[in-house]
Design brief:
The protein has 8 helices and 4 strands. By secondary structure, the protein is of the alpha+beta class. Strand 3 (120-128) and strand 4 form a beta hairpin. The relative contact order is 0.09.
Length: 180
């Protein structure tokens, strides 16, 4: 393992060795619980520890800087990711194949545009003495649309809260004298 070079000297000074390990591990899958375990925190408390670490400003800063460095290293922008998802989401299967009563026929890959080819996840062919089969799998359009929608803030995430020990909610209209 290595520590990302982009973490500033200030962030490095504030991070403990375990926190630095957490930052590295968190970047693997963005899973705070798994990152905490891999960084050496107890698995029993990893969920809480991971959540708490993500609230610390110096840990947040280290994560953001590490992500920025990775984006620079791999030269992948958010626009590129969204554009690729859009190619999948808005691709038309009829552009890459034809089907009907006579069966299915794929267009030759050399005839596909990059946008058309982007939606293809897998092509396979099996042959036997009795014939054969052709399989074309396209990327999940609904998932691509979901990811684009989330990126653009089109969907509101709802979460369920479990409250132990009761909950009191007070609603007040106007002041105590009944004035608005």
């Amino acid at each position: 393992m290595f520590f990302y070079k982009e973490v500033t000297a200030v962030a490095k000074k504030k991070l403990t060795a375990k926190q630095a390990a957490f930052v590295e591990e968190y970047l693997i899958d963005l899973n705070a619980t798994a990152a905490a375990i891999r960084a050496g925190y107890a698995s029993k408390s990893a969920r809480k520890v991971g959540s708490n670490l993500l609230t610390l400003p110096h840990v947040q800063a280290a994560i953001q800087e590490a992500m920025a460095d990775r984006r620079e290293r791999v030269e992948v922008t958010q626009d590129q990711v969204v554009a690729e998802l859009a190619r999948i989401a808005f691709g038309n299967p009829r552009d890459v194949m034809e089907w009907g009563p006579g069966g299915v026929r794929l267009r030759p890959s050399s005839e596909l545009t990059p946008d058309q080819a982007a939606m293809v996840a897998e092509v396979s062919e099996t042959t036997s003495q009795n014939g054969g089969s052709l399989k074309l799998k396209i990327h999940d359009k609904v998932r691509a649309l979901e990811l684009i929608g989330k990126h653009l803030g089109m969907f509101v995430e709802r979460s369920k809260m479990d409250v132990e020990g009761g909950l009191e909610v007070r609603v007040s209209y106007g002041d105590e004298k009944g004035n608005d």
